[in-house]
Amino acid sequence: MKRLLAVVLVLFCLSPLLSQTPARARRIAVWGSSVAFGTGDETNKEGYTGLLRELLAPRGWEVFNQSRGGDTTITIAPRFTPVGEPQTGVRYLTTVNPGYVVIGLSLTNEGILEARTTAEKDAVFKQYADGILGFVQRARQNNITPVVALGYPRMSYTPVEYEYVKRMNVAINSWDVPSINFLGALDDATGRYTIGFDSDDRHPNAAGHHELFYTFVPSLFEALEKGKPIPSRTKATGFARVAKGGTPLVFEPQDTMHSFALSFSVQAQENGNVADIAGHLIGAAIDAKQTARGGTIQSATLTSGNVFGASVMVLNGKLTYRSANGMNLISEVNADAKWHQVVVSHYLARGETLFFVDGKLAGRTPERLQPSMFTIGGGMRADYKDLLIYRSALNEIEAEVLNAGKVLQASLEVYAPLTDARFTEGSSVENRAQSMSSIKVGKGQITHVDQ
Fold first, then answer.
1. Residue 88: Cβ-neighbour burial (10 angstroms; 0-12, 13-18, 19+)
2. Cα gap 382→216, rounded to integer Å
3. What secondary structure does DSSP assign to 399-412, as a single string?
4. Burial, 87: exposed, middle or buried (Cβ in 10 Å; 0-12, 13-18, 19+)?
5. Exposed e or buried b for every residue in 163-197, given b needs 16+ CB within 10 A?
6. Which of 356, 352, 354 has the alpha carbon at shortest distance from 343?
7. Average of per-residue pLDDT across 83-112
8. Rounded Cα distance, 328 and 335, in Å
9. Going from the N-terminus, what domains does the chain have, and what CATH number goes with each?
10. Rounded mean pLDDT, 413-430
11. pLDDT, tens digit, for every residue of 356-379?
């Protein structure tokens, strides 16, 4: 793990600095291979691409499906723009005149499974990274704002390929380009699809496509339209000091959120709640469903249940996650005068929450949560900085990268450094994520403290 983290951090250091150019129209092209095309969606509604269209059409956006099954970074290249007269039936990118493109390819098609030796797999890894980066640059040269969909599961992945996918996802996360964290929605913890969300070895079913769709930050394209830059660490100093009582900082997602991750740094020395998560429990039933071709698949049906409350707290002097069912995941980390970084990472599809403290896994618990409110502070006197909320779960490598001081931007809806000069009830704090979402200052005493 240490060697893998070192490789990831090197990739961060070598990240290219790519400049954004103004986009043209409110036209989004999803340009990729079979999953982007919608393969596996037994309802024949174009999978996550069709769902993105349904979400954004009332908001004034057009979404075009320019994908083709089986494409790699090599075979998709001629479909960027036609040379001469466009070929009939070919889904080119530029012919729909997009202002934005979602690049949706996979390491699977690139040949990561077929590569036998480490050298061969490394070559596939490099070819894929170079290819995606080339499309990012080419899109910007054509005044198209790029977004990259990260890798996703495959049923035939071994632990070896799983590590390559996680490495690639963190590497792309380090580039100056927005991205979407698909793996954090459907990963069963081995790199394979969670049962009930897969159509076959390669593709998600309709339920799986829904989970991929939920990883899109709904206001991402509006934020890009307004020129909001890739999130980065602020140069401002200080942090937020919160007194006991009230609900000092509140985030309420305006669109349905499934898998998520909540992260922040805290100094706390008393017993009590540090942060709270509220919403509804989700039930899951897996049944046989018929496909359009007459076959059957196992598909998950999700239902909303009772309200829940979960918390990050200090319990008997230890940083702890109390789950929706009351189970305590007690870390070995003492709450003291030092800064400690916390990550609550929830995979709705597989029904599991992971709790990390200072980049190390402190425990895991089964539960399915649909959050509707995140509350930071109020349970004790404590200090906070670097609040992040993702629309996708984070794995152990991503938790380590966050703890190393990097900002992962894939599916990031909130990044509040909490260095604001003042916190006024009812106002919004700075959000450096590429979203238009607001974190509100609620009731309670919260002040800026210089470091």
1. exposed
2. 32
3. HHHHHTT----TTE
4. exposed
5. bbbbbbbbbbbbbebbbbbbbbbbbbeebbbbebb
6. 356
7. 94
8. 16
9. 2-225 (3.40.50.1110), 239-449 (2.60.120.200)
10. 95
11. 999 999 999 999 999 999 999 988
| pLDDT-derived band at 292, boundaries 50, 70, 90 | low
> Distances from the Cα of 363 to the Cαs of 197, 317, 320, 357, 394, in angstroms?
25, 17, 9, 10, 14
Mean pLDDT of 391-402: 97
According to DSSP, the residues that pair with 342 across neighbouring strands are 264, 357
Q: What is the pLDDT at residue 247?
A: 84
Residue 25 amino acid letter = A
Q: How far apart are CA 100 and CA 61, in angstroms?
A: 11
Q: Is the pLDDT of residue 153 over 80?
A: yes
Distance, in Å, from the CA atom of 305 to the CA atom of 324, rounded to the nearest integer, reads 12
More confident residue, 106 or 15: 106
Report the pLDDT value the prediction gives residue 451, as an integer from 0 to 100. 73
Structure tokens at 435: 């979203």
Q: Could you count the other beta carbons within 10 Å of the beta carbon of residue 22?
A: 10
Strands (E), 217-339: 239-242, 249-251, 260-268, 272-290, 296-315, 318-322, 328-334
**In the chain, pLDDT over 90 holds for what percent of residues?**
84
Counting Cβ atoms within 10 Å, is residue 357 exposed (0-12), middle (13-18) or buried (19+)?
A: buried
Q: 92: closest CA among 127, 56, 68?
A: 68
Measured CA angle at 89 (ends 86, 92), to 5 deg: 55
DSSP string for residues in 352-390: EEEEEETTEEEEEEE--EEEEEEEE--SSSEEEEEEEEE
Q: What is the pLDDT of residues 235-275, one digit of tens each?
A: 888 999 998 888 899 999 999 999 999 999 999 988 999 99
Q: Show Cβ contacts of residue 152 under 8 Å, excluding neighbours closer than 6 positions.
A: 35, 106, 182, 183, 186, 204, 212
Q: pTM of whole model > 0.90?
A: yes
Please count the other Cβ atoms lying within 10 Å of the Cβ belonging to residue 234: 16
Neighbour tally for 425: CB within 10 Å? 13
What are phi and psi for residue 88, nearest 5 degrees? -60, 135
Q: Which residue has the higher pLDDT, 9 or 150?
A: 150
d(CA 149, CA 168): 11
Digit-coded pLDDT (tens) for 305-325:
999 999 999 999 999 999 999
Beta strands 318-322 and 328-334: pairing type? antiparallel
CA angle 53, 179, 41 (to 5 degrees): 40
Residue positions counted in the chain: 451
DSSP 429: P
